Automatic annotation (TrEMBL), chain A:
TM region positions: 15-39, 70-93, 105-128, 148-169, 189-212, 233-251, 275-296, 303-320
GO MF annotations, alphabetized: electron transfer activity; heme binding; metal ion binding
UniProt keywords, alphabetically: Heme, Iron, Membrane, Metal-binding, Transmembrane, Transmembrane helix
Signal peptide feature range: none
Tagged with keyword Mitochondrion: no
Compositional bias ranges of the Polar residues kind: 462-482
Gene3D superfamilies registered for this protein in UniProt: Cytochrome c-like domain
Organism from which the protein derives: Chitinophaga fulva
Domain Cytochrome c positions: 371-450
Name of the protein: Cytochrome c
SUPFAM superfamilies in the record: Cytochrome c (SSF46626)
Region annotation (Disordered) ranges: 459-482
A Pfam family: Cytochrome_CBB3
Length: 482, 453
């Protein structure tokens, strides 16, 4: 409420963060954390298989190099920029929460940045010196050692970021102990790290196998051997990933796990929850089947046969990320800040005096019969717009129509009765923050939206209106008069 | 007293057009001065690689176009192009630390400017990604597109256009955050771009990019380890280095025109003597560097690099002072507004604490206090069920009377359903479960429901 509200009225604000973040996680896990050890391992195999007279087998080495080239290009472009994109999108959509988190986690993120810089420097050294290092065995061995260093660094970067993610999922710790340590010691940290590590390895391996089928034709010399190594790699990690997924699921705090069925089930993706139950064993068994098949019949493996388990494995990780994001609700910072970016501790004040009185950007600080629609729009923007649109994805009109009947005219009284209590039944919803007049304005606006389909423009196009009744003096005066 | 009055008066005027948001009420993670040092230094490290990325791609384009006539310049272009992909990776990764630092030091200002230019701001991510992919495409198709130079150069030209545009987005934001009094007038990126000072600063930045890239390549192509003669036949190391020095010197001279222009177009509110002094010192430090470059260009060929170390030292000092000047202006310009914001934040925190201590009575609970014997169960019903169920007729779910007809005499069944509802019926939304209700709450609730007649 102290920031101009950026708002995407069709796409949904959360979707923007989610899209960028999921691409980043896919690339980070599948093409860095899990892929680089796989590549280094293969590079090492090339040296071992070459025999005493050669440094490495040139054809084998070139194939592994080409795979690394793909990962290098993708990680240093889309991977790097989506990483920055998470900051950019979170700052646009969720400024209060990301701003608060940075105040607490500055040091953690700074350390993470240092490991990240090292990772980028190492990845450049590793890839850009590959061909030169083929000139002597000593250089080649040093190069392979670089590869292992790089693998460790990518993993360490992940360890730190998981601490930050774990912190946000552990309810209540913000108020008692908001330091980095609680990120590492909270009950979700190790299970999450344990889940991500083998899953990244599986992704890296399957993606590597996919590249093998793309870069080699069926008669080329090393194809079968490379595929079989890939199969051994994924078969080694897939069972660990399955066990870790189960442990991770069980370690999620009980209250949050309860949320999962409603959380996932009530989204517009109606079969989401069912999907979760099928995709975990489904994706892992697809990968295992691919692995076993490849070990016995490598010659018959086709690109599409790898593509299917590859997509499934990425989906497997994706759905976990989706659920992890959702079980944070109704908070964005557990026990401290709701997903509408309002602090829980400010609720008594908003309930007493109204939300608009303290809003920096609003058309008025009080609801009157004349300004009901514009103040209703303000209340919507301040307390609903982070997750709901007016007529787009997860639109406010749609969620109410789903309750009261699709296409039926919405009833203001019913909505006004529902909203103050919705958080009891829909535990992922934050409580409504405003007073009764603001509630009235909000339901009038929602009804108006249903009738007119009027879109809501965010600050990025409509600009801002500075709340005329909100000045430092007025607040200071009201403090003195008490 | 009168000073105090006029100060207050000024603040009031400022507020009448200026939003005064509240700051995030959490302490800074480190002492402010240390954060400022981290911001200035890490930003410098970032911007130098941005300069090299932008300047490098501009020079590659120039050399490749020239290479259409003289093959040697095509080789030069390829040699410069190899540096871009490395420099661009460092530019991105080094950008994260100043981003974190500005987020923590200027939270409200930075995020507000971002939101006001939001679409263009977030477009940075796909635009830069596209430009990076294009530079790789350009680099890795150099030999494949040997016979199709037009297409090959177009790939780079497109990347250069994007690289030229991105700094404008950043500058617009960094500029807009300094002027909360303008926020109310901004409608999207274009109007923020039109604020005074964006374009002079942009040109200043472009020239700096060319100067820094000129010096970098002067060193890069002049290194002993760099086997110049194996790449080039007709042009000499000296030719190239002389051209690069001339470029660096030429744009440095031009900076003496642009610099004052930037200063003049700066809104007056942050211009104070401390700023002028820092900027003048920075400009002065550049003078000896320019003299040594001039001597290098006009001197003997074998002595062209003689003073290069001194040039770099003087220029580093210039860049450091200019970056500090930037910060001094920002700090001057925002000081009064920051003070207002801090006051407002404090006042709000006080009010919020007071409201927490004396919360307004909750209407729903007071209503039930005036009570019948069923009151406690009614309160639980009111808080958890009433949004969807009323006594008669459908609201969201079926009416209470229907529950009574189904569950009369089956209290455990009703409890089980509330905890974990079964499958929804046709035309109704799925009821959420209420596992958070305690056994006692559940008992009084179900007693209440089944007592409804």
């Amino acid at each position: 409420m102290d920031f101009p509200m950026f708002h995407l009225d069709w796409l949904n604000d959360r979707f923007l963060i989610a899209m960028i973040a999921i691409v980043h996680v896919f690339i980070n896990h599948g093409l860095a954390v899990g892929f680089i050890p796989y590549i280094t391992w293969l590079e090492q195999k090339g040296v071992k298989m070459a025999g005493a007279s050669n440094i490495t087998d040139p054809e084998w080495d070139h194939l592994v190099y080409r795979k690394m080239k793909v990962a290098f290009i993708i990680t240093t472009t889309i991977g790097a920029m989506t990483g920055v994109g998470i900051w950019f999108s979170a700052g646009l959509i969720s400024p209060s929460s990301i701003g608060s988190l940075i105040r607490v986690f500055y040091f953690a993120w700074f350390v993470e940045w240092l490991t990240f810089v090292t990772e980028v420097v190492l990845i450049m050294i590793y890839f850009l010196t590959w061909k030169q290092s083929n000139q002597s065995l000593k250089a080649k061995i040093r190069h392979i050692r670089f590869g292992w260093f790089l693998s460790v660094f990518s993993w360490i970067t992940m360890c730190i970021i998981v601490s930050i993610l774990g912190f946000m999922m552990d309810p209540g710790n913000w108020n008692t102990d908001h330091s980095l340590i609680s990120g590492f010691t909270n009950p979700i940290y190790l299970p999450q790290l344990f889940f991500r590590t083998p899953t990244a390895m599986v992704l890296g391996g399957v993606f590597g196998m996919l590249l093998t089928t793309i870069f080699t034709d069926r008669h080329s010399a090393w194809r079968n051997t490379v595929l079989k190594y890939g199969a051994r790699w994924v078969l080694c990690w897939a069972p660990v990933s399955l066990v870790a997924a189960v442990i991770y699921y069980k370690a999620m705090p009980a209250a949050m796990r309860e949320n999962m069925s409603t959380a996932v089930g009530t989204m517009e993706f109606a079969q989401y929850y069912d999907l979760l139950r099928y995709i975990i064993p489904g994706a892992v068994s697809l990968v295992v089947m691919l692995g076993i098949w490849t070990l016995f019949r490598p010659r018959s493996v086709r690109m599409w046969m790898v593509l299917v388990p590859c997509v499934a494995a990425f989906g497997f990780l994706g759905i976990f990320e989706r659920v992890r994001e959702f079980i944070r609700k109704p908070y964005v910072i557990g026990g401290y800040m709701y997903s509408n970016l309002l602090r829980e501790e400010d609720y008594p004040l908003f309930k007493r005096d109204g939300l608009l009185k303290y809003a920096t950007y609003a058309t008025a600080s009080k609801v009157t019969p004349e300004n009901k629609l514009s103040t209703g729009r303000d209340v919507f923007m301040l307390s609903c717009s982070r997750c709901h649109t007016t007529n787009g994805i997860n639109s406010i009109v749609y969620v109410f129509e789903r309750l009261y009947g699709i296409g039926k005219p919405l009833d203001e009284n019913s909505m006004a009765a529902y909203i103050p209590n919705m958080h009891n039944g829909r535990t992922y919803m934050p409580p409504f923050p405003g007073n009764n007049e603001e509630l009235g304005a909000l339901v009038a606006y929602i009804k108006h939206l249903q009738q007119t389909g009027e879109p809501l423009e965010g600050a990025q196009s409509a600009g801002i209106t500075v709340n005329p009744g909100n000045s430092t003096e007025q607040i200071a005066d009201s403090v003195q008069s008490k | 007293m009168s000073y105090n009055y006029s100060m207050n008066h000024m603040l009031t005027l400022l507020q009448s057009v200026t939003p005064v948001p509240r700051d995030i009420p959490l302490a800074l993670p480190l002492p402010e001065w240390l954060l400022v040092v981290l911001l200035v230094v890490s930003f410098l490290a970032h911007i130098i690689f941005v300069n090299l990325m932008l300047g490098g791609s501009l020079l590659t384009l120039w050399a490749q176009v020239k290479g259409l006539k003289n093959k040697e310049y095509d080789t030069l272009a390829y040699e410069i192009a190899k540096t871009i992909t490395v420099n661009k990776s460092l530019a991105v990764v080094l950008g994260v630390a100043p981003l974190l630092s500005i987020n923590v030091l200027y939270t409200v200002y930075f995020y507000s400017a971002n939101a006001l230019t939001g679409l263009m701001w977030i477009a940075i991510v796909p635009l830069v990604t596209a430009a990076f992919l294009l530079t790789y495409l350009h680099k890795y198709t150099w030999h494949k597109l040997e016979d199709n130079k037009g297409l090959h150069i177009s790939i780079l030209a497109l990347a250069v256009l994007i690289f030229l545009f991105i700094p404008l987005i950043f500058l617009t934001n960094i500029n807009l955050m300094l002027f909360p009094e303008k926020w109310g007038t901004i409608k999207g990126f274009m109007s923020a771009l039109a604020l005074p000072n964006v374009f002079p600063r942009y040109l200043h930045f472009l020239c700096a990019s060319l100067a820094i890239t000129g010096l970098f390549l002067f060193w890069y192509l002049g290194r002993n380890r760099y086997a110049f003669e194996t790449h080039f036949k007709s042009i000499t190391r000296y030719d190239i280095r002389k051209q690069l020095y001339s470029l660096a010197l030429g744009v440095s001279v031009f900076q003496f025109v642009l610099g004052p222009l930037v200063l003049i177009t700066l809104p007056a509110k942050g211009v104070q003597w401390n700023l002028i002094i820092v900027i003048l010192c920075g400009a002065t430090a550049a003078l000896p560097a320019m003299y040594w470059m001039w001597k290098g260009i006009t001197g003997k060929p074998e002595e062209i690099g003689m003073n290069f170390g001194k040039v770099i030292m003087a220029m580093t000092l210039t860049v450091l002072l200019m970056a500090s000047g930037r910060h001094v202006y920002r700090s001057n310009a925002l000081a009064p507004h920051k003070k207002l914001m801090a006051e407002k934040t404090k006042a709000f925190e006080r009010l919020s604490a007071e409201a927490r201590a004396h919360p307004a009575p909750d209407e729903s609970t007071t209503a039930q206090a005036s009570g019948t014997p069923a009151a406690p169960g009614a309160a639980v019903f009111q808080a958890n069920c009433a949004s969807c169920h009323k006594k008669e007729g459908r609201l969201v779910g079926p009416p209470v009377t229907e529950m009574v007809s189904i569950y009369q005499g089956n209290l455990p069944g009703l409890k089980k359903w509330i905890r974990q509802p079964g499958k929804k019926r046709e035309g109704y939304p799925q009821m959420p479960g209420f596992p958070q209700l305690s056994e006692q709450e559940l008992t009084i609730l179900t007693d209440y429901i089944l007592s409804v007649k």
